[in-house]
Amino acid sequence: MLHQVIEILNTAIFFYAISVSMAYVILAILSARALHLYLRKNKFVDHNVTLTSPYAPSVSLIAPAYNEEKTIVENIRSLMSIHYNNFEIIIVNDGSKDTTMQTMIDAYNLKKVDFFVNDQIPCKHIRGVYKSTNKAHRKLVVVDKENGGKADALNAGINISQYDLITCIDVDCIIEQDAILKMVKPFMEEKDHVIATGGVIRIANSCVIEDGRLLHAKIPESIIPRFQVVEYLRAFLMGRMAWSKLNGLLLISGALGFFDKKIVVACGGYNHNTVGEDMELVVRMRRYMSDNKKPYKVVYIPDPLCWTEAPADYKILGRQRNRWMRGTMETLWMHKSLFMNPKYGLLGVLSYPFWMFFEWLAPIIEFFGLLYFLFLVFLGYSNWHFFLILFATVYFFAITISILALVFEEFSYRQYKKHSDILKLIGTAMVEPLIYHPRTVWWGLKGNLDKFKGKQAWGDMTRAGFQKKVIKSETPS
Amino acid sequence: MIKRKYIYLLFILLTWGNVAVAQNINWEGIIKLLSTQLNSTEILIRVCTVLLIIFSLFFLGFFTTLMIARSKHRNEDAYRKDIKEKYELLLTGIIFNDEDEMQTDEWKSSKKRVVEHFKKRYLRKRINKKYLRDHIVLLHKNFAGTAADVLRNLYIDLKLDKEAMRELNSPDWGTQANAIKELAQLNIIEAKKKIKSRTFHENQILRLEAQVATIAMENDDPFSFLGKDKNHLTEWHQINLSKIIDTIDRERLPLFSRWFNSKNNSIVEFCIKMTLQYDQFESIPDLTELLNHKSQNIVGEAARTLGEFAATESQPMLLKVYRNATIPIKRKILTALGKCGTHELVPFLQQQLVQNEISIAMEAGKALRLLGDEGIQVLKDQTNSMLYGVGDICKHLLDERI
Amino acid sequence: MKKVLVIEDEDLVRKSLEFRLKKDGYQVTPCADGRQGIQAIENGTFDLVLTDLMLPYNNGLEVVSKLKSVSKETPIIVLSNIGLEHVVLDAFNLGADDYMTKPFSPNELSVRVKRLLNK
Fold first, then answer.
1. Is-contact B70 A419, C-beta < 8 A?
2. Are strands A296-308 and A193-203 parallel, antiparallel or unpaired?
3. Residue ranges of the domains in chain C?
4. Would the CB atoms of B143 and C105 count as touching at under 8 Å?
5. CB contact under 8 A, C12 and B92
6. From A464's CA, which of A424, B330, B356, C52 has a CA 20 to 30 Å away?
7. What is the ipTM score, two decimals?
8. Is A87 within the bounds of a domain?
9. Which CATH class is domain C3-118?
């Protein structure tokens, strides 16, 4: 009897592993095609046309700031040098406890103005709206509001924004100067109604950063961010590219995303009640469009446009992953009616179940799979032969996929120029399944536990800050 | 480019190798095992072994690809950098050294020398030609006048145009589109017939490049495609077309209202935009008529253009259409009324300001502000309005810093 | 010898400008981005500044306003591929003395530079 149960469980585990692998293989193939086409299409595109055209869409850039007194001036300055003409920069001071607000007022000669706030989406009280007296900073709008969290700050920014396209960014990210030019293109170019575009997030640790600009991309010196480099390449170049091709993309990172404001407002803006507000918004917008039977698209741009500093120690990284897991769970739960609902098309029958099985449940299944084997060992039932060979297969599959992601990078953007970089990345990819992956499983599991215990808080993301690594450039002679 | 093919070949070989390995595995045996009493774990082990071999071979394959590609790319980068510096020096020298003395005999002989020098030293390799072409195109984009002529002459003297012409026949749309772009930038007239034939190509990007190039080069009805193109002109397409139209002589421009009755709504929209861009006031009656068009986008564009033209005569029609319009169109009409209206409109706009749709109130307020003293007085009067939002909107509009 | 500061991020164009202006007999300081440009303005004096608009770090408008706050008299020419009305107006409002759109004729530029320097 027990023997048969074990047989069945073994088979189940095997098939789960196979289906995960197949899913990744299919995603990889789709990504390769989508990436290839994207690169071909954009090889000779002249973004100057958008830059110089009076018909280019106007964009409101919204960046929430919370306790950023050390970096805010620098960050705003680098946002202002973004190459685009029809745009405004809205900095939302989310009730910072430090001197963020005063720092901005002093640095940019801000004056409070009689700004009419169209409160189309609810948000905390707005204390005031400021504009610069210097005409060179005409694009800048600063909003001072009571603290209400990131989602709330973004909603306030949406209420202030004048234009039809909004882009939400993390103020401490390094945004490439042609980011807006590249990200608005799908809105102009696609025949279908594009409701959102998302950008790639890259890891900025150890990169040479000067005054808010990335000069050289380098492989992070320490191993933890290095794991994340491989992880992000895989997720962005392979995963999301394929989902974008299928038009089934569920997540646009909070660090860089463009949205059609009309739809965002119609959906009620960002949700305050989840730690995964970025994913939740995209799912809700998709749902809204499906409910109203309007054809739409969510597009994803593979160019490296946004660089962020990744957590460099396991504790902070663990908190981040824990939060991601909770965000995923909350989003999936809020929209549970999508599950296998043919009314929502691909979103219901493919994207949602995929996220559920491979993002939410994967850590749980993996963890229990492991427990199960330990249990077998304990009982003396284990078939070591099977265990080892299954393990080796999964391992080789994992590193094959990682290295394929590196191949994609090599044939597309090649951000890491040195010869040794590639060897470092391969090495990282080879140890990742052994050292790093078990931890992500554990964090995912903890996220599940915390969620069921009812944890809400964001958890502090302490950043090492770019400050330390700023290298002064030589003054020109 | 050629080398990349080898990499693909390697890919194929490796895949094929994997298949061969898989074939060597005794499939019949496995099937036999499946059909006999063997327990499932045993089968799983065998399947896993096969997979393991496949994955590890793929891993090795990708690894090799990666290493080869990396060293190839690095060599390319180094070479490109080297050649870039040489070209920069040479090209800037050519453009500026002789800009003033272009007509002299000395220049002509020195030009010959330069051409020979280039041919001998740099153009033996295919890749060099490609780089040089890119460089010339880039410089040509930035310069006008004599400098541009010098570049163009050099381009032709080096027979680089022939290369680009050859690429027009490439089966690859990307190569073709790139060649079209280049030929149009350097105004190589011989190519225009071939390019014009691509203006209806099924590939959107190629079609766009061909249309852009045709507008730039063709004198004989360059806009004829507007009457025939059934494809939707995306905003991106329109921006590109408008950009190139901006560079040609005004005398060559047609009256865009010619296509206002096109069945392709996107073409009508585009033509309205062009009517505005080139101040074709004579189309005002046609624009007014378009206010009754079925497409909301067209109505919006027409209203906007009438506003920009300050076409007071269209005021009654705008007001008539306003009544049954959707909110976004209402907003556009209000903006237009602000620009083309007269003080008689003040009561109407005031009425729109105090109704309850915020976005409309905002536009009505802006329109009032545009109407001058009388309108501004209304805004000032309303700053203390008890109605939701109205007072704040008025304050917002009166604050000159925003 | 008159000193000219050239701020332009496109390598080829910057080198061409440098070449041309040197040929006209000016002493040229080339800068590849807005930050270098602003530093140069802070640390030295120039008889004329030539700047692009879309630059890394600090954009051309910031360069214009910086120059005008340091020395009001120094003429500045904006050289950009953007011909949008509001951008041109912004540049003039901030104190730009001349505005040229690309593609530009180097001969014309040379004349404009000369005219501003002789004022």
1. yes
2. parallel
3. 3-118
4. yes
5. yes
6. A424
7. 0.88
8. no
9. alpha beta
